[in-house]
What we know:
Elements: E1 6-11, H1 12-15, H2 37-41, E2 46-50, E3 53-55, H3 58-63, H4 67-76, E4 92-97, H5 104-116, E5 120-125, E6 129-131, H6 136-139, E7 146-147, H7 149-154, E8 159-160, E9 169-171, E10 184-186, H8 192-205, E11 211-214, H9 222-236, H10 245-256, E12 261-264, H11 271-276, E13 281-283, H12 285-293, H13 296-302, H14 307-311, E14 313-315, H15 325-329, H16 331-342, E15 347-351, H17 376-389, H18 392-396, E16 398-401, E17 417-424, E18 427-434, E19 440-444, E20 454-459, E21 464-469, H19 470-475, E22 478-482, E23 487-491
Parallel strand pairs: 1-2, 1-15, 2-5, 5-11, 11-12, 12-13, 13-14, 14-15
Antiparallel strand pairs: 3-4, 6-10, 7-9, 8-9, 16-17, 17-18, 18-23, 19-22, 20-21, 20-23
Amino acid sequence: MNYNPSLYEINTRVWLRRFDQGSVKATLADIPNSYWDTFEQKRIDYIWLLGVWKTCDSVIDKYCFEDGLVKSYDRALKGWKREDVIGSPFAIDVYEINPKVGDLNTLLKLKTHLNKKGIKLILDFVPNHFSAHSNLIRTNPNMFLFVNKEMHDRDPHTFYHPFFEEKIYFAHGRDPFFPAWQDTVQVNFFCLDARKYLTNILLELTKICDGVRCDMAMLALNHVFKNTWGGILSKSGFEIPPTEFWKDAIATVKNERPDFLFIAEAYWDLEWELQQLGFDYTYDKKLTDRLKTAPAEAIYEHLLADEEYQKKSLRFTENHDEERAITAFGKERSKAAAVIISTIHGMHFYYDGQFEGKKIKLPVQLGREPEETPLNEMKDFYNKLLSIVSQDVFKRGLCRLLEPAPAWDNNGTFKNILAFEWKWQNEKRVVAVNYSDTASTCRLKLDVRSYHEEFEITDILNDQFYIRSAEEVFHIGLFIELKPFHSHIFSF
């Protein structure tokens, strides 16, 4: 049985401010149970609460006001103040609930309430690094990547000296293609103690949530870690472990709790490799990028990938790292993209504010969001779309990529249309999206041999219905004509 779940991301520390009562700051305990009713109605399967863990306020002044970050604050929040900068939620001190968010008991109550509604709770797991000022540097120093004074002096941006009373130097966490994240300290994945510590964290998390979104998961792969830090590792005498961290950790956790979900933030064409190591879902950033700029043919080619890969892909048009979809795509293209990512195999991923058409990307270091007027058109569109894709035919059905044909000779606009067919028991749906800025037509051949010669087909996305000839639809194809970036979702 197939299952195509949905995930909704909430930037917890920012979102909680909407529930403040004057000077009294809201915590998870202040969220009314009724708030989650709409998610139940939309059949959202997972809620990801980003940023519930303790961070270190001491890193804010030191690392969160460099020029690039300040410019991002200026773009996102006019008139921001110093107290609006609360630091990155990915620079974790320890995996304990941040008291500004709530406490463990409150989180467990929320999880219980969500589970009763059929919704599961996802939290962050950031394996690559901890806060540069994490207490673990003192209690568990061996799990981090350390260097000598010469390396530090040669590259003080990548390496740092946290304790002036001790001659010990550490690496900041990093992605090999970008400068180091200076508010973090790098975990050493070739250290068995580090692997054991991280695995034990995951085992503890199985008691308080239903899964984890693993930040920059590919950085923990043996070959990636070696390529990033090889010179330092060899000088320190560390060799590549015989097994992959993820394979061991996921197997250990799933042995304890088989239904615990692992989601990988993943790039660089390493998604399939991570799926083979046990991840339930991996980011499909390549699809997002193609939806932003590529023609429909390139998107079609991407969706020809292996079916098992497709089913384990996380489809999205925006999240906390991406520009808001309505800004990056434009309004009409963003709606067409939303139809696509919501009606193909895999996990369908939405971000808080997406349904209201929010336009401003907020840096994760900011704790206050700008005021934005919700766009009723986008709210209505997403209400309709989510009501459609919450049906069992999309949740549990089989999806088939269709091949549009020209509506008539020498008409090439059929290549602009993407189409999918869903089947579940006696239910059928056909999705057609004109993913271009040109009015386009095509024919879609459908198996309607069991239908009456004259049958009704309903466009449930646009509330239109049509009478069509079964013989024509079977032999020649259903005629489709769509305006730029418009869509049909047919029920018949």
